[in-house]
């Protein structure tokens, strides 16, 4: 028995040895992100490092610093992105980014939008690129995708629980509340929001229907972009704030039920402010007859937008009011009551 146990322990040690060796071979590099004009730190900047073997991505802390371990001994490639700033890519010598050298400092330059009235994307099954399109419009679309992607990175690096209140109001023929239901919900960040699944936005149920509402993560999903066309509409105002408006619709040839609407991002910071959405492709005799709504956002950490409240209204199949544009049959409000971080708190 003693010999068998010793052999087992020896095999276990040998199995761990390669991992220990690899850990000892890594090098810690420190990247510090600052605003080029103000020279102030930019927290929550996305820092991606590729050393040729592995790729790692982190959000910078409150001091604008990201610490990443790499296996390279010569050079590595670093990419830094932040909302409202032009991205930077650079090839760096490992010795220039070691902690003993303080840090590798990368300065980001702020973006300025100079948008034409209408600019369309050049995507398959979408309208041809408009002659008035500009690099600024392309940058706006890239910032939109980055804003959604930033939320994904944030909830991965700083997992949390969202406390939600769902209020559902059914209206009578006169538009007065017939019933009000209030539910308290708690959602872990990795499960909060419906994932976007092509051809599975609307679900028939035994009694009625259910809808996978448009969530911020869809705007970072390549499947969503592949099935939709985006049009940069230019500037508008929301609560006295200047925003860049971008319309989206199902691409030509998409005949199943999907989303159309408008996304608004802050023209100064590129943070998400509002998403207006509506179900497109509903059959005339389908259920619901019509569904639309909007989502507003709040910021629990610099350059990070999370859904604050979502209002959805819909008309049932047998409702004549859907055509007449009168009050809906049902109003539902989903409100963020609070966020509780599981481990580390963000900047």
What key phrases describe this protein's structure?
347 residues; alpha+beta; outer membrane lipoprotein receptor (LolB), chain A; 10-stranded antiparallel sheet; 4-stranded antiparallel sheet; 4 helices; 19 strands
Commentary on this structure:
The strands form four sheets. Strands 8-13-14-15-16-17-18-19-9-10 form a ten-stranded antiparallel β-sheet. It is α+β, with helices and mostly antiparallel strands. 16% of the residues lie in helices and 43% in strands. The chain folds into two domains: 2-108, Immunoglobulin-like; 119-341, outer membrane lipoprotein receptor (LolB), chain A (Clam). 31% of the residues are buried. The model is unreliable at 1-23 and 128-133 (pLDDT under 50).
């Amino acid at each position: 028995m003693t010999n068998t146990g010793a052999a087992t322990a020896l095999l276990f040690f040998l199995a761990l040895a390669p991992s220990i060796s690899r850990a000892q071979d890594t090098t810690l590099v420190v990247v510090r992100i600052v605003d080029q004009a103000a020279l102030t730190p930019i927290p929550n900047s996305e820092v991606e490092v590729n050393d040729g073997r592995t790729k790692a991505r982190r959000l910078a802390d409150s001091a604008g610093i990201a610490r990443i371990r790499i296996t390279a001994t010569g050079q590595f490639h670093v990419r830094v992105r932040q909302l409202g700033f032009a991205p930077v890519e650079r090839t760096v010598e490992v010795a220039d980014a070691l902690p003993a050298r303080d840090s590798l400092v990368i300065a980001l330059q702020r973006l300025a939008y100079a948008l034409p009235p209408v600019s369309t994307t050049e995507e398959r099954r979408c309208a041809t690129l408009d002659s008035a399109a500009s690099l600024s419009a392309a940058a706006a679309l890239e910032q939109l995708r980055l804003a959604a992607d930033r939320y994904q990175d944030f909830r991965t690096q700083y997992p949390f629980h969202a406390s939600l209140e769902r209020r559902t109001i059914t209206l009578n023929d006169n538009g007065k509340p017939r019933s009000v239901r209030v539910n308290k919900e708690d959602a872990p960040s990795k499960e909060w929001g419906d994932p976007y699944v092509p051809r599975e936005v609307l679900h028939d149920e035994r009694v009625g229907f259910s809808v996978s509402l448009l969530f911020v993560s869809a705007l970072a999903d390549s499947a969503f972009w592949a099935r939709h066309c985006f049009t940069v509409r230019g500037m508008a105002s929301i609560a006295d704030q200047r925003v860049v408006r971008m319309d989206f619709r199902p691409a030509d040839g998409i005949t199943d039920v999907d989303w159309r609407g408008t996304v608004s991002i802050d023209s100064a910071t590129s943070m998400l402010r509002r998403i207006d959405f509506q179900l497109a492709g509903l059959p005339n005799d389908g259920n619901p007859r019509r569904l639309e709504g909007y989502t507003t956002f709040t910021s629990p950490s610099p350059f990070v937008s999370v859904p604050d409240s979502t209002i959805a209204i819909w008309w049932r199949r047998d409702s004549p009011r859907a055509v007449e544009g009168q009050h809906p049959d049902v109003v539902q409000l989903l409100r963020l009551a609070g966020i509780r971080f599981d481990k580390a708190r963000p900047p």
